[in-house]
Amino acid sequence: MSAMDGPSFDFAAPGRIVFGAGRSAELPRILPEFGVRPLVVTGSNPARHAGLLEALDNPPVATVSGEPTLSSVREAVGAARAADADVIVGLGGGAVLDTAKAVAVLAASGGDPLDHLEVVGRGLPLPAIVLPWIGVPTTAGTGSEMTMNAVVASPEHGVKASIRGRSLLAKVALVDPLLTLDCPPAVSASSGLDALTQCLEAFVTSKANPITDGFCREGLRRAAAGLRRVYSAGSDVAARTDMALASALSGLALANAKLGAVHGFAGPLGGMIDAPHGAICAALLPATTRINVRALSERAVGAALGRYSEAAAIITGHADVTGLVAWLEETNDLLGIPGLRDLGLAEDRIDEAVAKAGAASSMKGNPIILTDHELTEILRAALD
Questions:
Q1: Residue 173's pLDDT band (boundaries 50, 70, 90)?
Q2: Cα–Cα nearest to 342, from 290, 274, 277
Q3: Is 304 left (phi over 0), alpha (psi -120 to 50) or beta?
Q4: Which of 16, 212, 338, 345 has a 20 to 30 Å separation from 7 between CA atoms?
Q5: Radius of gyration for the chain, computed over Cα atoms and rounded to the nearest angstrom
């Protein structure tokens, strides 16, 4: 085998990763390395983080309620400009972190989200110079502190799309499992299933590489160990640590190996129905896995079928993809994940969702090109 036959890939990650129980206490020491006028982007209840905000001398705060939208991002950018912020801190779940990324770009450039938004915007490349930002997740799911895209909803277009580029990578990803201890069970369930989905999709995509493979294997193992436990016993620090690691590893993997059909659907569906991203992914995952495996078997395409078997062995102890699908379905039941119908998808909008998913960037990472019939079959199976 020649040198040209070996692996060839790029790998992007935050400038620094700080992980461990209690390490969010280091934020006041880390922050001045990057700026002296911080804006903190956080959730709708900043009092939840009163101690940490007080340790930062109570900086200006921009709050995020629900998923990021064009209007909420513009509002947060306005807050950053009003504060003359020179560093952004994202302190919250995936929606907060994605907003913080967008603010870091737009507050520095003076632009608008639609300048850089894929699919429905102009999709312009990001400027090389943006405000530094620090990601401090308080949920374990999206791994957004590790990624180079920010997902923003455009209600007028009925779709979610990404602002994407290397300049969105955090200067520091500060992951403290203790910050997730007060996550409600439903949030722990939907966010945790998002992390599991991301590890599985990044593992079977054709863009996987030896580095992301290691992250996915460990992430799947951690998710299998911790997911059900954080739902039933939220104060279990070991389980919270497992899921914080699964989330972080999934973010590193997806940023470099991309995703698949679950997230190909999740973006458009997130713009069509008012439902949590993780819950949408969880509802789609069993059927997508089953139909991907069937299509791979029927068409004898690539190596992804073996990857699914390996993932099954990591999660269930047996290299049986049928057992993996059963485990996913059982986990959704145990964690109270509703079907897409209960999440707001009407049956007469399935064709619309399939058409929109076809244009989603994540769909390009799926290990096999699915037909419209197969995509429709996934949505119908995920309805209930």
A1: very high
A2: 274
A3: alpha
A4: 16
A5: 20
| Both structure tokens of 310 | 């390996």
**What are the two backbone dihedrals, phi and then psi, of residue 250, each rounded to the nearest 5 degrees?**
-65, -35
Per residue in 71-107, pLDDT (tens digit) is 999 999 999 999 999 999 999 999 999 999 999 999 9
Q: Is 371 exposed, middle or buried (0-12, 13-18, 19+ CB in 10 A)?
A: exposed
Tell me the C-alpha distance between 151 and 162, whole Å: 4
Listed in sequence order, the residues at least 6 apart from 30 whose beta carbon sits closer than 8 Å to its beta carbon are 18, 134, 172, 174
Distance CA 223, CA 244 (A): 9
Kindly report, residue by residue over 255-306, the tens digit of the pLDDT.
999 999 999 999 889 889 988 889 999 999 999 999 999 999 999 877 899 9
3-class SS letters over the chain? CCHHHCCCCCCCCCCCEEECCCHHHHHHHHHHHCCCCEEEEEECCHHHHHHHHHHCCCCCEEEECCCCEHHHHHHHHHHHHHCCCCEEEEEECHHHHHHHHHHHHHHHHCCCHHHHCCCCCCCCCCCCCCCCEEEEECCCCCCHHHCCEEEEEECCCCEEEEEECHHHCCCEEEECHHHHCCCCHHHHHHHHHHHHHHHHHHHHCCCCCHHHHHHHHHHHHHHHHHHHHHHHCCCCHHHHHHHHHHHHHHHHHHHHHCCCHHHHHHHHHHHHCCCCHHHHHHHHHHHHHHHHHHHHHHHCCCCHHHHHHHHHHHHHCCCCHHHHHHHHHHHHHHCCCCCCCCCCCCHHHHHHHHHHHCCCHHHHHCCCCCCHHHHHHHHHHHCC
Token pair, residue 288, equals 């997508």
| Cα–Cα distance for residue pair 332/307, rounded to 1 Å | 22
Question: Smallest Cα–Cα separation from 258: which of 362, 116, 114?
Answer: 362
Give the Å distances, CA to CA, from 15 to 95, 148, 289, 311.
21, 12, 34, 29
Q: Looking up tokens 């639609």, which residue turns up?
A: 114
pLDDT value of position 52? 95
Tokens, residue 32: 């001045």
